[in-house]
Structure formats: C-alpha cells, structure tokens
Protein: Methyltransferase
Amino acid sequence: MGNAEGKYDKRNTLNDLTGKEWLKLTSSFWFSEKCGLDKEAFKHPAPFLVKDIEKLIKLFTKKHMTILDPFCGSGTSLIAAYNLERYGIGFDLSKEYYQLAKDRLSALGAIQQDHYQYILGHNLDLVKKLQEDSVDYVVTSPPYYNILKNKSEGIRSNKSMKGYRNGARLGIVSYNNNGLDLENLKTYGDFLKALHTLFGEIRRILKGKRYCSIVISDFTVNKKETNVVGDVVRLMVDCGYEFCGNVALIQENKPLYPFGYPFAYKINHHKQNILNFRK
Structure:
C-alpha cells in the first residue's frame, strides 16, 4: 500500500481497508453518491445506490465473503458485491423486480456465476433454508410499511439531467400485492413484529461477531411522524444484536416540498439512516 492509502494491519479480520480508509468510513454521516449503474434501479420505487452499498460492503467484509440482502429489490446489493469481488445472495417477492435485477446482473456478467444468487420467494422461508453461521454480512432496506401507497407521500420528480430521478417515486406505488409483503400488513405493530421474526432468524445464519446494516428512514404512521429508527433499534437489540451506531446517509439532491404549509410544520426527509448491528 502507498502512503496516500495508509497501512493495512494484518490483524484486521473485518475488512481489507487500511487505517486511513477505515477511519473515513467511521463518520456519522455520508453523502449519497450516484453512478451510471443506478439508472435502471430507478424502475424500483425505493432503490439502493451502488456506491452507497459499496461503502458498507468495503467496511464490513473482505474479498470473497458472502453478503445477504433479504429485501433485494432491483439487485443493487448483488451488483455492489460483484464489483468488489464478494459473493451475494438476494431474496425478493416481486417477479417484476426479480427480472429487473437479473437484467442488471446479466449486463455485468454476474448472473452466470453461482456466487450471485437472486431467489424469488418469501424471505423468512428462504432464510430458514440457509445454514447456521453461513453469511458474513447482511445489508438491506425493508419496505416502509404502507408508505409507498400513501397519497400524500413519496413524490419523486424526474428532473435529473442524466435521465434518472432524485428522491421518491411520483404517485402511489404498490410494491407487491402479495399478502406476505411487509407493505401489506394491517398495522405498524404487525410490521415491527414481522421484522423481529425475520431478523431473529437472520441472526442464526449470520456468523459470530459479524454485522448487519438496515437502511431505513422515519415515516408517518396514521398521519403522525413516527420514530421508526428507534423502534427498529429496540427490536434488533431484543433479537440479541448489539447496536453499533446510526450513520446518516444524506440525500442532498432531493427536492423540498411544502408539506403542511401554511398551517403546520411537516419535515422533508433528506436522509436515510444506516443502522449498524453486530451479532
């Protein structure tokens, strides 16, 4: 390693980073980064961006380790894993986004390799089929309860000069009509219980001392702003994980909307929360 990159400590069992590279990623806020590989992902209502997930994978894994995304959507986690020479497993319920992910992975040549699996089905059932202590890192973003179907939320404008959007999707979106999807659960309490069950099972297949990252934002429940982040931290701790911190992923290109004006204050969410946990 050159001096500009810092020195690599051979005792490092977490990742392949030098001390300088590691230090940069310990900041409590990151700025979201777009790249050309994101364009097709915006056909999904709530996409990951490749560069953002690459940062997490670099921080929490070494080459040839295995990553799991139980809500894989447009396949960004698998693409990021492929780019960094990690292996990837993804689950999702949606046939539409399964095909989108396959097309994105095929364009890179990853879909032909056994090390990159995208499996269509219910994630809890699929996680139960995985062996204990078989996954090195979990990174995912659960569907936000019913937020994508909320008439007053989730507006995305198509103003990008590069042909892909900033922010949330325009209009009302149903991610999946399958009753097993978290989006279709009747209450917010049911949503939290389902997450508790899933991540309790995920803990079984995650290797000891390894990490799980959940990307999520606060949102409104029954028209009330809700501390979703706090609820997710509590349920994960109850599952037996250690909470290791919240990184604010700043989305500075999202537009501002006059929600509530001129009668009441209503926040514009311009960040996601990357909640990091350790088994």
User: Anything to note?
Assistant: The longest helix spans residues 188-205. The chain has one domain: 3-278.
